[in-house]
Automatic annotation (TrEMBL):
Organism: Lepeophtheirus salmonis
Cofactor names: pyridoxal 5'-phosphate
Pfam families per the UniProt record, alphabetical: Pyridoxal_deC (PF00282)
Keyword field: Decarboxylase, Lyase, Pyridoxal phosphate
Protein's name in the database: Uncharacterized protein
InterPro entries reported in the protein's UniProt record: Aromatic_deC, PyrdxlP-dep_de-COase, PyrdxlP-dep_Trfase, PyrdxlP-dep_Trfase_major, PyrdxlP-dep_Trfase_small
Residues that bear N6-(pyridoxal phosphate)lysine: 250
Highest taxon, organism lineage: Eukaryota
Family: Belongs to the group II decarboxylase family.
């Protein structure tokens, strides 16, 4: 074992990007908490496979209860929960938001086939006319899903804040309807990866309802902030969306791979891809009080019991601790914004939640130099993004216990690199 650990440290760790480092400020880096590692050990020891209810009765039921618990902690309406009275909703765990997007899009596609096609020939015709919509700030996994679903992708221009507006969306729908297309799916950006942009759901939802368009809300990053009630204003009108994806490992320390998926069309979601061959059939189905099998709700037929990881995370850390981390991160991001604004060489685009987005005032070449210089030095890892033709850098607050001193030191690293670039450029 010692030899294996030595090889692991010298051959793997030494060449890896260290996501747990305090100056790994790239993407949406949430540090792994011990609770997740411990839960992984427990789940791996169990070797309990969640495929159908008979394979792991308590695992299936416990996971559904945990997903509902987190749905309530995030403030989602009961219509998205599995066990809420009179709810048609369904909440499950998936491996990532990208899987949630794929499952939502495939479900919406099948519903369009049922609505418009009565035979195989008509199905092919309908398939060729389906169009999915998203903003130019949507994560690439949404466009990737259209490739997997083999449907047309329509990427729409956003406003100066990166928000897709109702007029732009409605005009695109009308053009496609005139061309004989069938609008069927819309990926709603609710805190996009690039500049943390929010589409205008209030303006867009009416058009989607009118044309029976499935709305999938990407809350991969922003879902974590919802554990603090004061931030739930960002999900106003969330009951108008059809499904939601959440990646709590992008902020509050729930390590991969656990993504939450909620839909208010649970019956259709669970039934469309349901198959029950003899080798998976079980006789005591009356015991399955939830009438639920995990194999019907994901790309994979089986997976580990992720509910245990959800349980360990909230029990070992507690809601108040997680809320404290989120609030601290948002305040530190504002502090970063102040540091950026104090230096006239920099332009602050925005501070949203735990991310500050900025650029050096000069041309994009300098921002490219700065980004590469930081990475090459090994001192800090930032992500760059292109917005409205300009290159910006994203400064993320991610470590659970970092403070203003840590942030100030990190900003000093950036300033030192800019000073060196300016000196080299003459």
């Amino acid at each position: 074992l010692n030899q294996i650990l030595h090889e692991f440290e010298t051959k793997i760790i030494s060449g890896n990007a260290h996501w747990n480092h305090i100056n790994f400020r790239s993407y949406f880096s949430s540090r792994n908490f011990p609770s997740g590692a411990l839960a992984d050990l427990v789940v791996g020891s169990l070797f309990s496979v969640l495929c159908n209810w008979a394979m792991s009765p308590s695992g299936v039921e416990f996971e559904l209860q945990m997903v509902d618990l987190y749905g309530k902690l995030l403030g989602f309406p009961d219509i998205f929960l599995t066990n809420s009275p009179n709810s048609t909703g369904c909440g499950v765990t998936l491996s990532a938001t990208s899987e949630g997007v794929i499952m939502a899009m495939l479900t919406a596609r099948e519903l369009m086939f049922e609505k418009h096609a009565t035979n195989r020939t008509e199905r092919f015709d309908v398939h060729s006319r389906l169009v999915a919509y998203m903003s130019d700030q949507a994560h690439s996994c949404h466009e990737r899903a259209t490739k997997l679903a083999n449907v047309e992708c329509r990427i729409l221009e956003t406003d100066e804040n990166g928000s897709l507006r109702g007029t732009t969306f409605e005009e695109a729908i009308e053009r496609d309807l005139e061309d004989g297309k069938i609008p069927f799916f819309y990926s709603l950006s609710f805190g996009s990866t690039g500049v943390i942009a929010f589409d205008n759901l209030k303006e867009i939802s009416g058009t989607c309802e009118k044309h029976d368009i499935w709305i999938h809300a990407d809350l991969a990053y922003t879902s974590s902030v919802l554990i603090c009630p004061e931030y739930r204003y960002i999900i106003e009108d969330i009951e108008k969306v059809t499904s939601i994806s959440c990646n709590l490992y992008k902020w509050i320390g729930l390590n991969t791979c656990v993504s939450l998926f909620f839909t208010r069309r649970g019956k259709e979601y669970k039934s469309i891809f349901s198959l029950n061959p003899d080798y998976l059939h079980y006789t005591n189905q009356e015991g399955n009080t939830y009438k639920y099998d995990h194999m019907d709700t994901s790309v994979t037929l089986s997976r580990p019991c992720r509910g245990i990881k959800l349980w360990f995370h909230i029990r070992l850390n507690g809601l108040e601790k997680l809320q404290k981390i989120v609030r601290s991160h948002c305040n530190l991001a504002k502090f970063v914004g102040e540091l950026i604004s104090e230096d006239e060489r920099f332009e602050l685009l925005k501070v949203t939640l735990s991310v500050s987005i900025f650029r050096y005032h000069s041309n994009d070449k300098f921002n490219e130099y700065l980004h590469q210089s930081l990475i090459d030095s090994g001192e800090m890892y930032l992500t760059k993004t292109l917005f409205k033709g300009k290159t910006y850098l994203r400064f993320l607050i991610g470590a659970p216990d970092e403070n203003q001193k840590d942030v100030a030191q990190a900003w000093k690293i950036i300033v030192n690199h800019i000073d060196k670039i300016e000196e080299d450029q003459g």
